[in-house]
Amino acid sequence: MKTMSKLMTATATIALTVAGQAAVAKDLKYAHFQSADLSSPKHAAALAFESCVEGKTAGSIDVQIFPAGQLAGDNEVMEGLQLGTIQMAVVHDGPISAMYKPFSVLALPYLFDDQAMAWSVMDGTFGDELAADMLDKTGIRMFGAADNGVRNFTNNIRPIAEPKDMEGLKMRVMTAPVWVTLVESLGASATPVPWPELPGALQQGVVDGQENGVTNIVNASLYQNQKFVSLDGHVFSWHAYLMSDDFYQGLTEAEQVAVTQCSDIAKTIHRGMTAAQDANATTILEGKGMTVVPVSPEQKAMFREKAQPAVKEFVVGEIGEDWPNKLDAAVQAYRDQF
């Protein structure tokens, strides 16, 4: 009887210990802005992160995913990361640039040749230095960046093949001034609209068009109110994997390793899915009923000639020459390898 009593006592102690561990699991609220299905790169990557982190930490971190902007708007999510009320988010470049201006250097148009170059630059010294500076200035930790798609112009008025075709169009841009400069340098008028409000703005005719990658055009059903898409590829856009540093510093060393490793896995999944959609842009968007307008290298050079100097002048005026020079050096270093 004594042996049975000891066994029961030990079993009860183990149960209480396990229950106690479960009770103190750290909640990780994870926000993103794409729909909650596996065809969405952000969501597929988020689910992979959840499974990875909870597995590696044996449940000591409880990942709670809030897709489609359910938790807050994009600027509010950035503020939540800074305040620590939101633990993690995958956020597009516009809202990041609004809080941390040096990120706007990545809006320099017609800069990267392809995904291989863009990934190499962001995964190298330039990306590391940008992340370290962002952490120092904002208290937000960046684990890395995945593709938000190569950005193309869409509109519901006419085909855009050359800069002159932009004149007079009302274009939605992300909520950071650098995007206004980009669009206005090409002759269109720019209206900043937060991402969750974009479909309604197109439907109601508040704007004639917008600029986004294939993933976002499909994921938010923007094609329903946009007839033309021009494959000019003006900016290689990013989704950054961000975490409140207050939350990160409250993790154990093993938990910090887990979220870092799992972020890298999620980023890789995210990149692959988005890059595949960009590579098949014509097929995908024609399948959605859009008229795809090819842009020749000569026409692209015309866009570059008008947009790049204006945007670079704006960026230098906002953040100085240091970050643009670092980015130019990183791009040149990549090209020098070949």
TrEMBL record:
Keyword DNA repair: no
Biological processes annotated in GO: transmembrane transport
Presence of the UniProt keyword Transport in the record: yes
Cellular localisation: Periplasm
Signal peptide range: 1-22
Any single Pfam family the record assigns to this protein: DctP
InterPro entries reported in the protein's UniProt record: DctP_fam, TRAP_DctP, TRAP_DctP_sf
Any one annotated GO CC term: outer membrane-bounded periplasmic space
Sorted UniProt keywords: Periplasm, Receptor, Signal, Transport
Family indicated by similarity: Belongs to the bacterial solute-binding protein 7 family.
PANTHER family: PTHR33376, SIALIC ACID-BINDING PERIPLASMIC PROTEIN SIAP
Full protein name: Tripartite ATP-independent transporter solute receptor, DctP family
Organism expressing this protein natively: Pseudooceanicola nitratireducens
